[in-house]
Amino acid sequence: MSLLIRNGRIVSAVDDYVADIYIAADTITIIGTELPMEADREIDAGGRLVIPGGIDPHTHFDLPFGKEGIVSADDFESGTRAAALGGTTTVIDFATQAIGSSTFEALEIWHRKAEGKCAIDYGFHMIVTDMPAARLEELDRLFHKEGITSFKMFMAYPGVLYSDDGAIFRTMRRAGELGGIVTMHAENGIAIDEIVKRAVAEGKRAPAWHARTRPAILEAEAVHRTIALGESAGSPVYIVHLSCAEALEEVVRARDRGAHAYAETCPQYLFLDDSRYDLPGFEGAKYVMTPVLRPKWHQEQLWRGLRMGDLQTTGTDHCPFFFEGQKTIGKDDFTRIPNGAPGVENRMSLLYQGGVVEGRISLNRFVEITSTAAAKLFGLFPRKGTIAVGSDADLVIWDPQRTETISVDNPATHHMNVDYNAYEGITVQGMAETVISRGQVIVEQGRYCGRAGQGEYLKRAAPELI
Ligand code: URP
Ligand code: ZN
Ligand code: ZN
Question: What does each C-alpha distance from 463 to 305, 312, 382, 455 come to in angstroms?
């Protein structure tokens, strides 16, 4: 099967030109102007951008949360389908080690969840929750044989996902020796738990207290500690879902002295703010996530970080829970509200709107923060994350003019398996029109036409330290 995309404006992290792209099977084989060959199928991309498929390095499909049998609402089938419709062609989800069992068991479980279901290619980070010295060798096999070169740890959620500094240091030292990277949920969960306990004892149970008990300074402290531990253990570090200016300052300071410190932010921290917790009734529960939404002024600081290169990537931390039936479990107690929000479908359009349309970042930088940088940091480049001869034909034909208002009720913007959209009412210009995953058209004129199981597991290489 061959495919020829004609006359598109090809935009990568560094290029911007009009040309044709010839795809043989799943690979880009020729790029040139007025290519003389024929193909099984031709698509005219005149007046459109052709960009590398988005890479979302932070999703949680089919994730069990807490002890009440709650599972995130999108599985790998509905989640990757929604991702594809939004212009994302690769996700990196998280296999989660259960305390007391091996990381290999976790990997097997997550392979079973994903196999045969995905619309797009996928990889896994390994969430490490239990790493005594005797288990460190597991990391070697994950790295060399299983294609898992990034290990996620938590300074938050004591008793559940939390690791102490010793376990973090041990894991970082081994990850550094291997040439891997440690990614961190950076919030001081031990201190936060004390604040939460007092709030609950004082009868403060509404969703807004979730936000009031997780101050920015405790995110900044954990970011500082993550970077310090990484520097002394010899491992690059990557802060996931960075939400606030104080935390960003720590990253900037570290990068200025040459540390291998990287960070991701998410659309929720760029578009939503803490006033959402003041919504009437239980509405604020829709925005119960960690880290929490911050006051509005943080948003411009995060955009500045993206523009200046101090923030390298954007992930969604897509972790949807139904408002009715899942979030409502915490109706009388915010500590029982499952943490997380949906977003995998809307990331590309939101960043195009806030970044390119509103003039905060260039088109090339848009590609870099939605695709290229994640491909490099997570060992997928140049197979993914760019448009080049030899790269996978993961491409999005992007309509830079099409405008939609995001809504759970708008079939052009919401296919996620959840009963609300966190970005309800936000108008975005720029939408994925045609999405191609390894040479197969899986979205056409905004309609899904792929099939579950088309997406393949990606064994990733060592990170490229950008
Ligand atoms: O609230 C969030 N972010 N839920 C997903 C799990 C995590 O902490 O990344
Ligand atoms: Zn997290
Ligand atoms: Zn997450």
Answer: 21, 13, 12, 22
**Parallel, antiparallel, or unpaired: how do β-strands 64-65 and 88-96 relate?**
unpaired
Q: Which of 94, 316, 317, 321 to mutate to test the pocket of ligand 1 (most atoms within 8 A of CB)?
A: 317
CA-closest residue to ligand 1 atom 2:
340
Residue 67 has pLDDT above 90, yes or no: no
Query: In this model, does residue 113 exceed pLDDT 90?
Result: yes
Ramachandran category for residue 333: left, alpha or beta (phi over 0 → left; psi -120 to 50 → alpha): beta
16 contacts 10 by C-beta, under 8 angstroms: yes
* Contact (CB, 8 A) for 432 and 448: no
Substitution site in 56, 58, 59, 60 for ligand 1 pocket (most atoms within 8 Å of beta carbon): 60
- Pick the closest to residue 395 from 22, 17, 14, 1 (CA basis): 22
Residues 6+ apart with CB under 8 A from 62: 71, 72, 74, 75, 76, 79, 113
Q: CB atoms < 10 A from the CB of 15, how many?
A: 14
Q: Per-residue pLDDT averaged across 392-410, rounded?
A: 98
> Are 181 and 235 spatial neighbours (Cβ–Cβ below 8 Å)?
yes
Q: Which two tokens stand for residue 97?
A: 């080690």
3-state secondary structure of 203: coil
What's the predicted TM-score (pTM) here? 0.98
Ligand 1 atom nearest to CA at 157: 8
Which residue has the least CA distance to atom 5 on ligand 1? 340
What is the three-state SS of 404-460? EECCCCCCCCCCCCCCCCCCCCCEEEEEEEEEEECCEEEEECCEECCCCCCCCECCC
Dist. CA 91 → ligand 3 center (Å): 13
276 lines ligand 1 (CB under 6 A): no
SS3 265: strand
Residue environment code for 219-244, b if the CB has 16+ CB neighbours within 10 A, otherwise e: bbbbbbbbbbbbbebebbbbbbbbbb
Separation in Å, CA 241 to CA 219, 289, 290, 291, 389: 10, 10, 8, 7, 33
For residue 64, the CA-to-ligand 3 centroid distance in Å is 12
Write out pLDDT tens, residues 158-217. Answer: 999 999 999 999 999 999 999 999 999 999 999 999 999 999 999 999 999 999 999 999
